[in-house]
Amino acid sequence: MSQTTQLIKTEIKQNVLLVGLNRPNKRNALNDACIHELDDIFNTLPKDLKCIIIYGEGDHFSAGLDLSELQERDAMEGMLHSRMWHKTMDKIQYSEVPVVVKLHGACVGGGLELASCAHIRVAEKSTFYALPEGTRGIFVGGGASVRLPKLIGIDKMMDMMLTGRVHKAEEGYALGFSQYVVENGEGMAKAMELALRIGENAPMTNRALTQILPRIVDAGQDIGMVMESMTAAIAQSAPEAKKRLKDFLEGRAKKVGE
Ligand code: 1HE
Known about the structure:
This protein has 11 helices and 10 strands. By secondary structure, the protein is α/β, with parallel strands linked by helices. It folds into 2 domains: 2-199, Alpha-Beta Complex (2-enoyl-CoA Hydratase, Chain A, domain 1); 203-249, Lyase 2-enoyl-coa Hydratase, Chain  A, domain 2. Strand 4, helix 2 and strand 5 (99-103) form a beta-alpha-beta unit. Helix 3 crosses helix 5. The relative contact order is 0.12. 3-methylmercaptopropionate-CoA (MMPA-CoA) binds at residues 26-27, 29, 60, 63-68, 85, 106, 108-110, 113, 132-133, 136, 140-142.
């Protein structure tokens, strides 16, 4: 499967869905139509998919919200617009299969909000992170208030919003923006390597990670522990888990680190 609309490219390679933001001349600024297309893609994921990689065409991952669409909205429209982003970003965060995002160039504003929904972030050294909302006189609306402090801490987000501070890739890696940082031009190969590795996991484990772990974290200790026990019990009762455990005990499975 390979499809290019004006705004988003999709292609499947080895059961990995590649989703390319495709407005390079607008630095992959995300207009409403882009968000609707992303929403459609996550509503209709093909069967047997192992992983998803989101990336940006051109020199940047994404310049964030398409600011040209912001000018005419009243308060209610602004609220609905933000909630529309939330709905789509939630679908990405709680996706049936894990999402890897490959970053390069600008990963700012709504682009960073999109990247924050992914489960693995691979940043090329050209990547830079910023929240220009602070200096544009607006506020984040795509979920950054909730997701970003979990990655980098509220104080780092506060600094970015208040002072316009920009973090480069390697510093961003140390701060928690990405789990991987690679040389320019090597991000897609790394993302694919990770996607294929992720795809070897039992689907139940991957679902537990994308759909349950973030909710356990949000639930608080008491409820979270019960949710963990239930998830552990369900996961280990699956035939796939029993087979994998048997394979290990009989010397057929990889050891840790192999
Ligand atoms: C855009 C946008 C955009 C570029 N909306 N059109 N985000 C920002 O505040 C970031 C704004 N963008 C930039 O700071 C720069 O464009 C970049 C640093 C990302 C890249 O710079 P550069 O020199 O490569 O590109 P450029 O010349 O600035 O932009 C090329 C074109 O893209 C130009 O249009 P053109 O018709 O004159 O060619 C720009 O106007 C256009 N463009 N970024 C619309 N963002 C859910 S709430 C989220 C809230 C936010 O995300 S706020 C943060 C918005």
